[in-house]
Write a structure and sequence with these properties.
By secondary structure, the protein is mostly helical. It folds into five domains: about 60 residues, no CATH class; about 350 residues, Na+/H+ antiporter like fold (Up-down Bundle); about 55 residues, no CATH class; about 45 residues; about 140 residues, Jelly Rolls, CATH 2.60.120. The strands form two sheets. The protein has a four-stranded antiparallel β-sheet with strand order 1-8-3-6. A four-stranded antiparallel β-sheet has the order 2-7-4-5, with no helix packed on it. A hairpin with a 2-residue loop joins strand 4 and strand 5. The chain is globular. The protein starts with a helix and ends in an 11-residue tail after the last helix. It comes from Pseudoroseicyclus aestuarii. It is a multi-pass membrane protein.
């Protein structure tokens, strides 16, 4: 191929990509559908130019187009890793992890159901062996993620529902390609009727192996990028190499799923990069990948569409009936997921309820695209596949893809309009009016400040201010009107606005570098949960999301369990440090929200709603303060270190601004500015390092501060610190059950517990103990003990407790007092008589 013609074709493709997006928006078509149309038109035009007798002048161009080296490997090894890696970088992973159950069920189960449905329907026609039918089923079971994402952007669908369907669309490509590789091996080996159970049993191995390879590769790539420091282009270059190396290593070396490896590598980077790369590097990396994925997605559709005339070569009228069979089975399988599996998940509260109109839109929006064509091309290229299987695979996969792109794609928007999904609900319409009113209030305040700062004359400002005030009054009146909006809905709207203001505050603090990128992402996820909770459950939903943001369960609870049961302290140290910083970040964010309530909410929704929101905010602040107080008791001094880090970050940001102003005013030159900025970056890198949290040291501090151990000599306290087991407890956790055998005594280092015995409840707090009387009397426990708050309990086994009891006068006195208070037998109280002289615990 002539290099000039090749460059001209490449430039033309870029021109088509550049013009395609605005044209698709104008024609109200999915971008991918328009690109496919371009590709088909170019392919048909090239064939026409070669066969027509009108002119031969363009024959070299037509030959070059048809001679493009379009192979399945180009799609699977060049374009697909780029697309998948970018999508995984762009997803809100923390929010998607909240719904990992429905995402994984839909991704894996949907692919298996579609594969079996299409394969079974096709096998019933008798045209191909079962393995070939299942192979075609795996090929057509993938959906185009960009089309699904586009649907929900058009619909303004609930965020949680959109997130679940987007996650399913991302991961079902990986699952389908793993199944494709499985059945492709059967077809090439000539296995006519495989054992479906045995085949599916290999499926987890493909997925698990790929996930392990990708995760390890992602962590290795992040380690290298973090070591490259300020070399931004080098960091981006490493990120570009990462998905391709993951794909090749998994696919060619270990025989696992390369697609899963790419997804796992992207998820590893998504989860860890904000805390290990600078904000500038993380932002630049995502921007570069957005551009690469845009080009890759456009090229994959253009080039795949060029293949359609080739794949449909030799099509017969009878083949159209088989295409209809494939389309009907695929749509029926997707309908089974939407009307069968999704309602079941909703009933189990693992997925949001999906309205029937949304299900219809999702069903008809299941477009197929380049991945389906690339897999079909891989089959047609393999000489180890029988000719009749190659021919039917190309025709059926291509025919079904054309049906989805040319029939479902253009009719999707009219269907959405017919279903009425473009119309806002009364609540959403009221929210839109409220957002406009709040925004205009902010604009008015900022314009007023600017006019004063500019020193503009009053006669200039007055007419503009009067006109803007009238516009603002109209917006406020619109926000207040609406017969369908009840008082309860106004509270919901206020909560959504409050959570939105919290989100804006997070972004402001991140831009000011007062909080790290990792904490910003966590805080944004909390804000999104508050918004979704308020939308779906009003005040109760908001409060549930607020309690969840305290971080008392989940990863922190698991880490505490590992520390208590398996003596693994590193996960707990990391989780406790994360929780500390998260709570301090929330405390910093909430300080600005009362002003928002007074200046914005009160004027729109009135005094009653504003006071209610202020009460909710005060209770939330109190809960955060209590949680922080508990952590400060558990880890003395650590909160102060984190707060000092906040101040250092703020000081560095102010210093950076001053240097930029000096440069802009010409008071310092570029060389000095670069030197000062380099020193600033080094100090910022040191400030970003979070202080280590040493749990062993904290345990020693807890023992030293415990009142009952105050009379022990230092050596005895050190020995006791080594002997006690630290147990981190969550509210509602059962610490002791009635009638259980007694093997240890528990000391409350922080938090509170409740002991229930014969209907009577006794609350114990910091510095008290439980289990000692049952142990001394050699009887089973006579009370249930349950944690009331998050806290720390120090547990000491029987032998060490008895030895300590003989040596500590304060402990003996405390045990004796508790025995008298609880009406213990006289002989037990007598055995605790006057305490002996203190001795070393050894």
């Amino acid at each position: 191929m002539d290099i000039v013609i090749a460059v001209a074709i490449l430039a033309t493709f870029f021109l088509l990509i550049g013009l395609g997006e605005p044209l698709a928006a104008k024609l109200r078509l999915p971008f991918t559908v328009l690109l496919a149309g371009f590709g088909i038109a170019v392919g048909i035009g090239a064939v026409f130019l070669l066969t027509t007798q009108i002119t031969d002048a363009l024959n070299p161009v037509a030959e070059a187009i048809l001679g493009l080296p379009i192979r399945s490997g180009v799609f699977l090894y060049l374009f697909l890793p780029t697309l998948l890696f970018q999508v995984t970088l762009g997803v809100n992973l923390r929010r998607m992890l909240d719904d990992w159950v429905p995402v994984m069920v839909l991704a894996v189960v949907a692919v298996i159901v579609a594969t079996l449905a299409v394969g079974g329907a096709l096998y019933a026609t008798g045209v191909l062996p079962l393995t070939a039918c299942l192979l075609i089923g795996a090929i057509v079971s993938t959906t185009d993620p960009s089309a699904v994402v586009g649907i929900f952007r058009n619909l303004a669908a609930p965020r949680r529902l959109a997130r679940i369907i987007e996650g399913e669309s991302l991961l079902n490509d990986a699952a389908a390609i793993a199944l494709f590789g499985l059945f492709m091996g059967f077809v090439m080996r000539g296995v006519p009727d495989p054992q479906i159970g045995a085949a599916l049993a290999k499926f987890p191995v493909l997925l698990g192996g790929g996930a392990l390879v990708g995760w390890l590769a992602g962590q290795a790539g992040l380690w290298l990028m973090a070591r490259l420091g300020r070399f931004l282009l080098a960091q981006i270059s490493v990120s570009v190499a990462l998905p391709y190396l993951s794909y090749v290593l998994a696919e060619q070396v270990l025989g696992a799923s390369g697609v899963i490896a790419v997804v796992a590598a992207g998820l590893a980077v998504n989860l860890s990069a904000p805390g290990r790369l600078s904000p500038a590097a993380w932002t630049a990396l995502r921007e570069v990948w957005d551009l690469l994925a845009h080009w890759a997605g456009a090229f994959i559709f253009l080039l795949a569409a060029l293949l359609i005339p080739r794949l449909l070569d030799g099509v017969r009228w009878s083949d159209l009936g088989l295409v209809a069979v494939v389309a009907g089975a695929a749509i029926a399988a997707r309908a089974l997921m939407l009307w069968g599996v999704l309602p079941a998940l909703a009933a189990l509260r693992l997925s949001p309820a999906v309205q029937p109109s949304y299900r219809v839109a999702i069903l008809w929006g299941g477009l197929r695209g380049a991945v389906t064509l690339a897999l079909a091309l891989a089959v047609t290229e393999s000489l180890r596949v029988p000719p009749d299987v190659r021919r039917m695979t190309g025709i059926l996969a291509t025919g079904f893809t054309l049906f989805t792109l040319m029939v479902q794609g253009p009719s999707l928007r009219p269907l959405i309009r017919w279903l009425g999904l473009e119309k806002l609900s009364p609540l959403d319409a009221a929210l839109a009016r409220q957002v406009v009113a709040v925004a205009l209030q902010g604009v008015r305040e900022e314009v007023s400040r600017r006019a004063e700062a500019y020193g503009l004359a009053r006669e200039v400002v007055r007419p503009e201010a009067k006109e803007f005030a009238a516009r603002l009054d109209r917006a406020l009146a619109a926000a207040e009107e609406g017969e369908d909006i009840h008082a309860r809905d106004r509270i919901t709207l206020g909560l959504i606005a409050l959570a939105g203001a919290e989100r804006d505050r997070v972004l402001y603090l991140f831009r000011e570098r007062a909080i790290s990128a990792r904490m910003a992402e966590r805080a944004l996820a909390n804000s999104d949960r508050l918004i979704e909770g308020a939308r779906s459950g009003g005040r109760l939903g908001y409060n549930r999301a607020a309690r969840r943001s305290l971080g008392q369960g989940g990863a922190y609870g698991l880490a505490a369990l590992l520390h208590t049961r398996a003596r693994l302290s590193r996960p707990l140290a990391r989780a406790a440090a994360d929780r500390f910083e998260s709570l301090l970040t929330q405390q910093l964010i909430l300080t600005a929200l009362p002003e928002f309530i007074e200046s914005r909410i009160r004027r729109i929704h009135g005094r009653r709603v504003a006071e209610l929101l202020r009460e909710l905010l005060e209770r939330r602040s109190e809960e955060i303060a209590r949680a922080l107080a508990g952590l400060r008791l558990q880890f003395p001094g650590y909160a102060e270190e984190l707060e000092r880090r906040f101040l250092r970050r703020t000081a560095l940001r102010i210093e950076e601004r001053e240097y930029d102003l000096l440069l802009g005013d010409g008071l310092i030159g570029p060389e000095l500015h670069a030197t000062l900025s380099g020193a600033l970056d080094r100090r910022r890198g040191a400030a970003e390092e979070r202080p280590p949290l040493d749990l062993a040291l904290q345990k020693a501090d807890l023992v030293a501060q415990f009142p009952l151990f105050a009379d022990l000599p230092p050596a005895s306290r050190r020995g006791l610190a080594r002997a006690v087991v630290t147990r981190f407890v969550a509210p509602g956790e059962v610490l002791q059950r009635r009638d259980e055998a007694v093997t240890s005594v528990s000391f409350i280092a922080s938090g509170a517990v409740e002991a229930e015995r014969a209907g009577n409840k006794v609350r114990l707090g910091r510095g008290e103990m439980f289990g000692q009387l049952a142990l001394l009397s050699r009887t089973p426990r006579r009370a249930d003990v349950r944690a009331l708050t998050h806290g720390v309990v120090l547990q000491l086994d029987e032998a060490r407790f008895l030895r300590l009891l003989r040596r500590s006068s304060k402990l003996r006195r405390a045990v004796r007092d508790s025995a008298v208070k609880r009406g213990a037998p006289a002989d037990l109280v007598a055995t605790l008589g006057a305490p002996e002289a203190d001795q070393d615990t050894g």
